[in-house]
Amino acid sequence: MAATLINAGAIIAGSLIGWKAGRLLSDKASQTLITVLALVVFSLGVEMMLQWGDFVLQVIVSLVIGGLAGELMDIESFLAKMGAGLQKIAGARLQGDVAKGFVYGTLVYCIGPMAIIGAMESGLNCNHEILLAKAAIDGLTAIAFASTLGLGVMFSGGSVLLYQGLLTLGARYLADVLTIAGPQLTATGGILLMALGIKMLDIKQVRVANLLPALPVTALLAWIF
């Protein structure tokens, strides 16, 4: 769990730095920065999505089933309520939209191959290199996110701690399935990141969190086939 703790700590530290620095930015500069971040997220999603190879049908079916399941559970509203609760507790002391920062941060830092593969390497082989590299990247992006979205991004460190921690602790039980489902999970996660980029650009308000069940569905279908 050491690398996951460092990863969560890097997000918290980066968010604090970005929150302080964000007060120096004008509204126009903040909007430009969030647009740049959205484009980066979208581009990363495209790169990941292109790794679906011969598994296009599995990825599509996973997204359909996962999306329907997510809508039934309404994960997006649950995360938004958590963010709103944090905003209510903190009051006016926190700059920016806490709920948006929390949701965006949670999705960006938890979707992607580095989170899954890094957690598995930490749990199985005590190899923390991937998660330490992810911690450095997440810490830097947290500075940029928090400078525009506020301190809500900091709370996504808790999501990373829970998500990656569970993957690390359950690595020995999940290793075979995740090895089989590697390309499919990467491609599915890429499409979710593309959707998040579209949402951040205000092109369409995609309920990205409601698509998260597509990831376990992808792993299940890969195991079945």
What does this structure look like?
The chain is an all-alpha fold and 225 residues long. The chain has one domain. The chain is built from eleven helices and no strands. α1 packs parallel to α7. The two termini are 32 Å apart. The model has no long low-confidence stretch (mean pLDDT 85).
Mind sketching the topology for me?
Layout: H1 2-22, H2 27-49, H3 56-73, H4 75-90, H5 98-110, H6 113-125, H7 129-149, H8 156-169, H9 171-180, H10 182-200, H11 214-224
Order of helices and strands: HHHHHHHHHHH
SS content category: mainly alpha
What is Rg?
17 Å
What gross morphology would you assign?
Answer: globular
> How many strand segments?
0
Beta percentage is under 5%
Mean pLDDT over the full residue set: 85
Pick out the low-confidence regions.
Answer: none
Q: Strand count, sense and closure of the main sheet?
A: none
